[in-house]
Amino acid sequence: MENDGELTEDEVFKCLSNLGQSATGLQHTYLCLSVPGRDLKNVSILCNYIYLQKLELPYNKIKDLSCVSHMPHLIILDASHNQLTDFFGFQPPKNLKEVNFSHNKITVMKDLSSYSSLSKLILDYNSFSAIRGLEKCKRLSHLSLAHNNISRIRGLDHLPLRTLCLRGNVIHKIENLQTLRKLQVLDLSCNRIQSLSGLQNLHLLGTVNLESNLISEIKEAAHLHDLILLREMNLLRNPVQNQDDYRLAVIFLLQHLILLDQHAVTAEEKVSAVNKYDPPLEVIAARDHMTQLMYQLMQPQVIFDSTLPSLDAPYPMLVLTGPQACGKRELAHKLCQEFSDYFAYGACHTTRGPYYGEEDGSDYHFVTEEEFQNMIQMGQFVQTMQYGGHWYGLSRESIERVAREGLACCVHMELEGVYSLKNSCFEPRYVLLFPTVVDNYVCFLKARGFYSNAQMETAVSRIHLYAKINREKPGFFDNIISCDDRTEAYQTLKQLVKEYLGLEEQGGGNDSSSVTPDNTSTTNAMGELLAANTKEAIDLMDSYSRNYQNKIQAKMTSQLTPAEIASSHRRQQVIREALSGKSRGAYAELFQRSAPTAPSSLASHTLPPPGPSSSSKRPVGLGGPDLDEDSSSEESCASSGLSMRSSVGALSAESPARRSDTGSGPNIEPLDISMLGQDRDSLRGHTDSGLTPDAPRSERVSPTLPSSPGRPGANVKPVLPPIPSGRKTSESGSKQ
After folding, report:
1. What is the DSSP letter of 527?
2. What is the distance between the alpha carbons of residues 322 and 505, in angstroms, rounded to a whole number?
3. Pairing of strands 317-321, 408-413
4. Could you give the strand order of the β-sheet that contains 381-387, starting from the edge strand earlier in sequence?
5. Residue 432: which of 344, 492, 380 has the closest Cα?
6. Rounded to an integer, what distance in angstroms lies between the CA atom of residue 195 and that of residue 214?
7. ∠ CA(709), CA(713), CA(717), 5° rounding?
8. Which residues pair with 385 in a beta bridge?
9. Between β-strands 429-434 and 163-165, what pairing exists: parallel, antiparallel or unpaired?
10. Which of 76, 392, 513, 717 suits 631 as a labelling partner, its CA being 20 to 30 A distant?
């Protein structure tokens, strides 16, 4: 090579490589020539090397490549980092596939329709202002025009591009890319792009680089939500990175990403993103339960009436659930009216306005948003949920109001409320009302005239959600009833409730007397029938409480030491004895002045004759026994909480405190502590024989037996938790 920059034959011999056969296959020749960084200006000697297939001349000062016109077999040409001003200034080789003209001084793109085999074209660091002349390049798969002066994306229609690099231009908008169906890698970094609109139809796109642009909104990532093959995304040095929770928001919108801003996306980040922006129903319910529990613990603690009927079994509830306007509220009201001695309606609170015909306090408690939030902070709710932009909540007072009457609570709610209620201490029966004919359901929604088209679409979509939950989680709902015909649905629900209550075994037919709890003849007949098998009945009736208690102990066993378990058992026993009146407080024992005598009930004394103020009997609740109101307060304190289990579990009488408020009977005598152990043994003997300590055999036997014991939610013949023994004394006396 001479000093004037001309390539000599000796230098060519030194730079040739890759000996092989010529294109015709008739002779051997060198196929590759690489002469980088020699400050070459004249390479005309290469006109004699017609068999070259690869020519590399980077980092020189070449201005003319006309010698390439004499290389018909050339496949790869690298002329980067030179001083070329002419775009493809040579005759097109037939099989030319890859061309690199980066870092030159070319300003205008010419028509390349003659280069039909061209598959890779690199034109970085030139002075192009527009893309043109590529329409006929039907094999072009890689195009790079980085760091030019291109302001608009055009001239690429229907090209088979897989990689497109337009880095470092002055592009303001992503456009005209919808026809690039095969595009997989797109580099638009260092431009002035503000929106990602224009990429939504590139379904094979796997990598997008938008570093150093002007994207400022996280919602722009939603344009890429449907690109399920997108794996890598780069938004470094964009204003959007200054927003809170930017990374989690983008990961949530683009859940298929494995690399964001050059950092791997972890599984923990994906879970956190979903839990933050679209949490599953289970997560929503768990958060709601924690919220209500936290606010409840911040309030003064009291003993709730719903915890008093039984120490070993949950308060009985019936929950009707289903899609919007499927008849939950109507059926709940009708059920509570017909079974008024067993159920009462629990009205929820809501922030929406009343529909036509709805009454405040009867159907819902209609409150403002501010009042609802204040109730949450006061810990008044058991569960809350949002649906249709409104808040709904079941308050503790709604349940307690029913529990104070000695009845089971019947409520209705949407699926979110069911999830939240399953986290609470309650274990209701869940009955799903499900529309099986969607067209009829839509017609019913339209006929009511309360709902917009969007609300009706949401309601219809939730039908599939209920079906999915029932299919994927067997036993989530205890029963499913078709609500296409409301009359038939209620008859099915009525029959189901009778089975829950064990009323079918009483009458054996549809006679209304089998539903009435205070039917004396039915009670006496069933009592005589079951008196012979009292011990077996007791075992069956206690099985529910044992199962429930075993379940609670199983949850605690894995976390507690043996010493802690034993301590827990002792505390539970003391609490049971205290609430049932069997043991006295330490304060009373400390200041006892004289040796007390055992109460008459423990000494098998004869009951005093009924007084005029307490001669009425309370109605039997859920097949429970008729408890005499004329018993003295001392017998109430001795036996409250020890009454015979009802046909569905454990049946408890009223608390001692409540009995003392009525003022019936004389004051209780002090209990002889020295005789307490002996009296307890005698109590156990009476209980094992099938009788309560103060009850004759013929009146204290539960009139019904459970069909099959089991906890709420189990896939067996359903048996409700124990329902208290009826309404208040004053109400039952007036009924009698």
Report:
1. H
2. 30
3. parallel
4. 364-366, 348-350, 390-395, 381-387
5. 492
6. 8
7. 40
8. 392
9. unpaired
10. 513
CA distances (Å), origin 361, targets 370, 374, 395, 542, 732:
18, 18, 13, 37, 24
Determine phi and psi for 579, rounding to 5 degrees.
Answer: -70, -30
The partner residues of 431 in beta bridges, in order of sequence, read: 320, 479
Reading the block at residue 600, the tokens are: 């008459």
Whether the model pTM is above 0.85: no
End-to-end CA separation in angstroms for the chain: 125
Give pLDDT, residue 594.
44
DSSP letters along 107-147, please? ------TT-TT--EEE--SS---S--S-TT-TT--EEE--S
User: Within 13 Å and on the Cβ side, how many CA atoms surround 529?
Assistant: 12
**CB neighbour list of residue 470: distance below 8 Å, 6 or more residues apart:** 432, 434, 476, 477, 480
DSSP string across 546-608: HHHHHHHHHHHHTTS-HHHHHHHHHHHHHHHHHHHTSS--HHHHHT--S-----TTTTTPPPP
The closest of 495, 455, 528, 515 to 703, measured between CA atoms, is 528
Backbone phi and psi for residue 480, each to the nearest 5 degrees, phi listed first: -125, 130
Burial class (CB in 10 A: 0-12, 13-18, 19+), 671: buried
Backbone angles phi, psi at 472, to 5 degrees: -85, -20
Q: What is the average pLDDT across 60-87? A: 94
Contact yes or no for 52/65 (Cβ under 8 A): no
458 contacts 445 by C-beta, under 8 angstroms: no
The SS3 of residue 653 is: coil
SS3 509: coil
pLDDT of 595: 45
**Nearest residue to 533 (alpha-carbon basis) of 704, 690, 696:** 690
Smallest CA-to-CA distance from 7 within 83, 86, 70, 64 is with: 64
In one-letter notation, the amino acid at residue 709 is P
Q: How far apart are CA 469 and CA 462, in angstroms?
A: 10
Task: Indicate the residue type of 273.
Answer: A
d(CA 428, CA 478): 9
Residues with Cβ within 8 Å of 573's Cβ and at least 6 positions away in sequence, in order, are none
729: helix, strand or coil: helix
Query: For the segment 244-256, what is each residue's pLDDT rounded down to a tens digit?
Result: 889 999 999 999 9
The helix or strand, by DSSP H or E, that contains position 688, with its residue range, turns out to be helix 676-688
Cα–Cα separations (whole angstroms), residue 580 to 201, 606, 637, 639: 72, 22, 7, 7
Distance, in Å, from the CA atom of 421 to the CA atom of 240, rounded to the nearest integer, reads 39
How far apart, in whole angstroms, are the C-alpha atoms of residue 122 and residue 78? 9
Work out the pLDDT band at 552, boundaries 50, 70, 90.
Answer: low
Residues 183-195 pLDDT 10s:
999 999 999 999 9
Using CA atoms, how far apart are residues 579 and 557, in angstroms rounded to an integer?
A: 25
**pLDDT (0 to 100) of residue 388:** 84
Three-class HEC string of 450-491: CCCHHHHHHHHHHHHHHHHHHHHCCCCCCEEEECCCHHHHHH
